[in-house]
Write a structure and sequence with these properties.
The protein is mainly alpha-helical. It contains twelve helices and two strands. The chain has two domains: 50 residues, no CATH class; 218 residues, Up-down Bundle (Rhomboid-like fold), CATH 1.20.1540.10. The protein has a two-stranded antiparallel ribbon with strand order 1-2. The protein is globular, with a radius of gyration of 19 Å.
């Protein structure tokens, strides 16, 4: 049975206060460095302890930790299949699993997903995983792990669609499409919940990254970034619609269906244009 906010019993929620553990709805959430807190706990000063009782990152954002570990493991596999060191030039993993339109058209549909877990260099994966860590520990506890995963998958596929639209004959790798989607969803949700300071910070970082993508080097997949961003924004809007009662009283299934539609349209669209 879904839990309900302790202050608003008619509102379902997947988020609990990081201090007292009581379930809280978006109107009752206050973002803090250690997660979302209820109104009472947010007014209390955080006590510094020696780690006893502190919630680990894995307990607060398990999908974020697993995704970072998965990306790191795949990168090590790339390094192992390359010419040595941390350079992945000539990696057979990138060639066999990277996103490449002609091969997708020949039936290798898995490249739409696997390409999002490969990276072109140590700096590439370091930047993407830092962004995922920063955004994941902020967004995942506030929307719940299932919604966070829905955003990530839909954004990854949206990035694949965007990359194939603009550069179908280029070998594309990287989690950037999913990261841009997380950026977009975080901005939309923070803005919709009235967390203006958070929205401004995320929006500023997002604009900087978009400017770099547009004016950056030719190896940057602008289509992947924009496609992931659009998918993430759509997922964020679906979550907000559910929180505002626009998807019915039991809105969680409807939100997940909406994100599934975004993912499915991106997947089918990418196959169609490959």
């Amino acid at each position: 049975m879904a839990q309900t906010c302790y202050r608003h019993p008619n509102r379902e929620t997947a988020v609990s206060c990081s201090s007292c553990g009581r379930p809280i709805c978006p109107d009752c959430m206050t973002p803090t460095p250690v997660g979302m807190r209820c109104p009472e706990c947010s007014r209390q000063r955080t006590r510094v302890t020696s780690g006893v009782g502190e919630a680990s990152l894995f307990s607060r954002a398990p999908a974020t930790v697993i995704l970072i570990a998965l990306n790191a493991a795949v990168f090590l596999a790339e390094v192992a299949s390359a010419h040595g060191g941390f350079a992945v030039g000539g990696s057979s993993a990138a060639v066999n699993f990277g996103l490449y339109g002609p091969f997708v058209a020949e039936g290798e549909w898995y490249r739409l997903i696997s390409g999002g877990f490969l990276h072109a260099s140590l700096l590439h994966i370091a930047f993407n995983m830092f962004a995922l860590y920063f955004l994941g520990r902020l967004l995942e506890p506030s929307v719940g792990t299932p919604r966070f995963l829905g955003i990530y998958v839909a954004s990854l596929l949206g990035g694949s669609l965007g990359a194939l639209l603009l550069t179908p004959n280029a070998l594309t790798v990287g989690a950037s499409g999913a990261i841009f989607g997380i950026f977009g969803a975080t901005f939309v949700i923070a803005r919709g919940r009235g967390l203006d300071d958070v929205a401004r910070s995320i929006g500023f970082i997002l604009l900087l990254n978009l400017a770099f993508s547009i004016g950056g080097a030719s190896h940057i997949s602008l289509g992947g970034h924009l496609g992931g961003l659009v998918a993430g924004v759509l997922c964020g809007l679906a979550i907000l619609a559910g929180e505002r009662g626009m998807l019915g009283e039991r809105h969680f299934p409807a939100e997940m269906v909406a994100m599934g539609v975004v993912a499915a349209v991106s997947f089918v669209g990418a196959l169609a244009i490959a």
